[in-house]
Fold:
Amino acid sequence: MTPKTTKVTIWNEWRHEKHKPEVAKLYPKGIHGAIADHLSTVPGLSIRTGVLDEPQHGLQLEVVNDTDVMLWWGHLHHGEVADEVVERVHQRVLDGMGLIVLHSAHFSKIFKRLMGTTCDLKWRVDTDEREILWVTRPGHQIVEGIDDHFILDHEEMYGEYFDIPEPQTTFLISSFSGGEVFRSGCTWTRGAGRIVYFRPGHETFPTYYDKNVLRIIENAVRWATPTRPPRRVEFGKRERGWLDGK
Amino acid sequence: MTPKTTKVTIWNEWRHEKHKPEVAKLYPKGIHGAIADHLSTVPGLSIRTGVLDEPQHGLQLEVVNDTDVMLWWGHLHHGEVADEVVERVHQRVLDGMGLIVLHSAHFSKIFKRLMGTTCDLKWRVDTDEREILWVTRPGHQIVEGIDDHFILDHEEMYGEYFDIPEPQTTFLISSFSGGEVFRSGCTWTRGAGRIVYFRPGHETFPTYYDKNVLRIIENAVRWATPTRPPRRVEFGKRERGWLDGK
Amino acid sequence: MTPKTTKVTIWNEWRHEKHKPEVAKLYPKGIHGAIADHLSTVPGLSIRTGVLDEPQHGLQLEVVNDTDVMLWWGHLHHGEVADEVVERVHQRVLDGMGLIVLHSAHFSKIFKRLMGTTCDLKWRVDTDEREILWVTRPGHQIVEGIDDHFILDHEEMYGEYFDIPEPQTTFLISSFSGGEVFRSGCTWTRGAGRIVYFRPGHETFPTYYDKNVLRIIENAVRWATPTRPPRRVEFGKRERGWLDGK
Amino acid sequence: MTPKTTKVTIWNEWRHEKHKPEVAKLYPKGIHGAIADHLSTVPGLSIRTGVLDEPQHGLQLEVVNDTDVMLWWGHLHHGEVADEVVERVHQRVLDGMGLIVLHSAHFSKIFKRLMGTTCDLKWRVDTDEREILWVTRPGHQIVEGIDDHFILDHEEMYGEYFDIPEPQTTFLISSFSGGEVFRSGCTWTRGAGRIVYFRPGHETFPTYYDKNVLRIIENAVRWATPTRPPRRVEFGKRERGWLDGK
Structure:
């Protein structure tokens, strides 16, 4: 039994990094590049990236249908993502592709499409906001290797109420210096696909170089990997007796 | 404390009843009329109906925003429901309105919008298909007064896999003569709103005169009633210290 | 239809109040007395109390079987509660009685029996610990009338990981001055019974006089009320054809 | 990175096989032996067995603490399993060990201990009872390689209501010739441990030689494997500032 390669596509809006010097300095290859640099060191993963300004945002049908796990980072330009591409990614999730939604991608079309809610929240960017992330589901694959909590010294605040369907698993809850809390690590399934929301990752902080953050992203990729080549479920009319005929 | 009136809107496509004589005979006032006849006898409910061919399908903004619980039956003309009306109903659910999705409305735009999945399934209409519905959450308000099972001698078959998010509660599971099973009673929340899916109700069978079916619909209306006038949740930016200022 | 009375039994260990002057001063009638004083003002409730040092802890079979909703507060003497009484309360919950588990009763025999886990947590009693409780399920009956958060200026800290099964609904999450978080409001069902855990309530603070705390307890009693007289589910052998014979 | 071996302990009551000739004929090595024969062919698993009549039922502390995934089959002698052994297995599950509960072990002490309910159900043994098992969570690891349903020509009937907490995932629902339905494949977590209930497996039928049944058991072992050596979570008192001191 040869171990299979998991095909990962990291998608990023990639606008902040081009227009804001301080973000460019932090993420010279883009946020997708920082994540790709780490995931490239993980055995068994094959990494691709896609960005908003490529044709079809780099998410052509053949790319999407050849992806096992997709990561998504977006912020101010969700509206520019073509509906056709969103529907394509949506169908692929239902067929089994894992989807890892990062930080401000809570407002991405694809996440709202899958959740059926506004995915809205409270927020604040402050210079001295500390985030403490607490593990609320020890033993879950996504928090393998993580202590009972970890700290990010500087992050954007996201506060409840976070308008999402009740998660199937809440694996991380954050507190912030200002007193707010947030369900920072959640999972759901839609069709055959596994979905993860993972909160941290504001573009002006070096979050995607933090070892705990990278470990969780790496674990999440493994957890969200389909157990076999994604395959469409069959529906529709069935004559009486079809069970015996099979 | 005077008991409050729950404002109910029963929505029906109302096409089968007009075009198919056998359906017209079974439901001379339409499926919405049969349900309205029963709910009108329940104390504390105020009943309205809406149908596809009315202006805005009878779901003007003031009607939707004055509804506590909406019931929805549709079958072959889901595509004719205006997107603008769907978005209006969607927002109202997030604000707290209960929504009871009946039978073939599993494919309605509003249900798919809230679930984030295809809501597809297997199906068959046969003349001798018996459905047995088993209670899988005794003590739930929606099955109050229902024995451990009940039987519908003639119904359409719906079979798994039913492409829905894992329900928060599965209160009924059906078996059919052909050997299929189906999660026939399920609940979810989206935003502040409670959603019920209740399977039976094919237009060529007298399902909406069955006392168990009517009892479950009546119970579901009570369960899905908002606990106070639906109110929009507030989101957005919060300066540090806003907690102390409140 | 005359509104039915909900029979409530408030159970309290009632030892701190007798042995510690500062607790006696805060709760001269005991914690159960403070809660009873409030619930007695709520229409439709009939209130009883029980304490550890009564015969059978005041939970004779006829009392338990005549209770619709039970509240439970205990702290240092969980081990003195007779197993026979615990089994009696357990069976009554499965039959449909609501159970509201308060604060340090997370370690009560009955809660651990229902959860199947240790129900352990981190904790700290400090003089300047502020608890902020955030609503994470707006529209739920238990948070009716509660803003998006409320604050208790002085409380004991409870911190994650809280060893409970994944809640069916998490309606409140707390942050504390020390940076910890806690799932402070959770619900589950077991058999036909609804169970609520509600965190605040350390004996050295006036928590049970706080209007938000009392409102939540009152709402929780309503939410946990069985929809009909609790009734035992029937199990066991069924001959083929029993369905047709009914 | 060398692949780790998963240590599996298959526990069986092993009484039917010794006292009933027809069971002995079907399972000459015992039900545990039949399952062990299959799992021994799966790469990466190391298999041990334990039975009721061994000292400490073969579940000495060192065996339990050296087990990653335990399978449990029992039927008429649940009461003979020592409470001390049950507590040992319970703690190990909370620490992360996977537990796969088979068929009539729904009534085992360990399953009831973890669920907090009676785990009771309806049942019938008939000579011509056919079970059809339907996949209700495609894409789940436990149903990898399974079609949308599979059939067991002869099995015992189990019928709802099955008195379990609402499952986190229901991956299989059965129908029976008699018209009953049952949630035949369910998962929960307790502490760090993953728990599977898998229904089929009456001792008088060759169920544990069915390829779909064996595939599901094999998949379930993989799914329930702890992601790292099981480790006890730490609880208890924490002084203010402990976060900064770490």
The helical segments of chain D are 16-19, 21-26, 30-39, 61-64, 83-94, 109-115, 211-224, 242-245.
